[in-house]
Amino acid sequence: MKYRRLGNSGLKVSELSFGSWVTFGNQIDDKTADRLMTTAYDAGINFFDNAEAYAGGRSEEVMGRILASKQWPRETWCVSSKVFWGGDQPNQTGLSRKHVFEACHAALRRLQVEYLDLYFCHRPDPDTPIEETVAAMSDLIRQGKILYWGTSEWSAAEIMAAHAAAERVGGYRPTMEQPQYNLFERHKMEEDYSRIFADYGLGTTVWSPLASGKLTGKYLSGTPEDTRISLEGLEWLKARFEGQDFEKELTKIRRLSGLANDLGMTMPRLAIAWCLKNPNVSTVILGASKVSQLEENLLASDDTEKLSCEVLETIDSILA
Length: 320
Ligand SMILES: NC(=O)c1ccc[n+]([C@@H]2O[C@H](COP(=O)([O-])OP(=O)(O)OC[C@H]3O[C@@H](n4cnc5c(N)ncnc54)[C@H](OP(=O)(O)O)[C@@H]3O)[C@@H](O)[C@H]2O)c1
Description:
Blueprint (H helix, E strand, L loop, with lengths): L2 E3 L6 E3 L1 E4 L3 H5 L2 H13 L4 E3 L8 H12 L8 E6 L13 H15 L4 E6 L8 H13 L3 E6 L4 H14 L6 E2 L9 H6 L1 H7 L2 E4 L28 H4 L4 H20 L4 H10 L6 E4 L4 H8 L1 H4 L5 H11 L1
Parallel strand pairs: 3-4, 3-10, 4-5, 5-6, 6-7, 7-8, 8-9, 9-10
Antiparallel strand pairs: 1-2
Helix pairs in contact: 2-12, 3-4, 4-5, 5-6
């Protein structure tokens, strides 16, 4: 495993990390979750991603029980949570001081840890002044309850506003952002954030490197039965695996799979290695419902050297 700095912070994160969205407390049983975390940790993964919203808090409970049952020294792993979607009540959502504090305390309890290494604002909140959120995050840092705070799916302008607010309130600037990044979703990482990377050294923990499994190639000959898009509650995701746009994506995936084959790797490995080629990526968060998937995806680290400039150009021409 290779490790990268989280932006311009001193924290080193494994270039591949592991997250529990959809899977923990929902799609898979706790025993499989344990085996996945163990496989990840044994491979050198040192960052586990979670959120208050995942499976209504059950994802953090499952991860917390697993972490508590291991003898892994606390300094060998990092864990995150994200605040935004905590429930149906008006003050169970958003980024007010009240919800940021209460969500943090609840995540600490569920994950059974004294502090969160990374704490993300899961989305921007237009109903809360940015100064209020920055001050709340900064207070949590001063109280030792979180070490670094960041954003997820914020625009460059919103992140810049947080930097300016930190200056005004004497608070901490956001260290990292968690955007979607994969062969089909490139705008934020490759365009929107360019100036923040250059001026502030923003760290990134990028999500859905396989576009929820689309980029594995397993949907090329119909929809397999046992995947996340058949799960109740994910109908919105299933809709992205249907229709004309999806047919166009399949044409590209077919060609990309051929390229992966020529390079001696599988389609998921190509898609993940491609993310790792971007130097502004601090870590690529992997997701898996089976240990065999995770084992395969972990091989992507070694595939990056096969992605020469020429190969990257071929990929761009397929995606154009
Ligand atoms: N901040 C945010 O808003 C946000 C949003 C989404 C995710 N995230 C984070 O990013 C993490 C990763 O996202 P993701 O789970 O969407 O990642 P992904 O890599 O795009 O999708 C992972 C899913 O693809 C399938 N898969 C993975 N490897 C495979 C393989 N080798 N062969 C066949 N199928 C394979 C599995 O689903 P099936 O077995 O069901 O097919 C697996 O659960 C999440 O756990 C979460 O921590 C953050």
